[in-house]
Amino acid sequence: MIVKQVNDVRGTDRSVRTDTFESNRLLVRADKVGFSLNHTVLYAGSVTHIWYKHHIEAVYCISGEAEIETLADGKRYHITPGTLYTLNGHEEHNLHAISDFECLCVFNPPLTGQEVHDAEGVYPLLEDAS
């Protein structure tokens, strides 16, 4: 059984912080559960370019407000607490955080915990450290 709190991973090698968000990876590939789970906060007023070419991501909004802008068609989706969205078509998008946007993110295949967005907004497929 795995039991942990977000503060157990904050500030460790399972935590990634950028100018636009902080992501704490509660479950990663090494946990061997078949998916990874992140607790993420995107900062109010930030815009994050994201394109998960290699992963499917499901996001559940806990608090705050954001808009997702899909780049292929320019559609915008308003996200508020209790909303789930899933990028099952690998949609390239911008995430506009209207207020601090707190969410839980599930990834398949699971993340190692060290991924950061590259210039295209992509998480590469990484191997676990030996």
Automatic annotation (TrEMBL):
State whether keyword Lyase applies: yes
Q: What is catalysed by this protein?
A: (2S)-4-acetamido-2-aminobutanoate = L-ectoine + H2O
- What does this gene product do? Catalyzes the circularization of gamma-N-acetyl-alpha,gamma-diaminobutyric acid (ADABA) to ectoine (1,4,5,6-tetrahydro-2-methyl-4-pyrimidine carboxylic acid), which is an excellent osmoprotectant.
Which portions of this protein are annotated as coiled-coil regions? Answer: none
Gene for this protein? ectC
Query: EC?
Result: 4.2.1.108
The family note in this entry says: Belongs to the ectoine synthase family.
* Name under which the protein is recorded: L-ectoine synthase
* Molecular function as annotated in GO: ectoine synthase activity
Query: Lyase among the record's keywords?
Result: yes
> Could you state one GO biological process linked to this protein?
ectoine biosynthetic process
| Origin: domain of life | Bacteria
CDD domains from the UniProt entry: cupin_EctC
Keywords associated with the record? Lyase
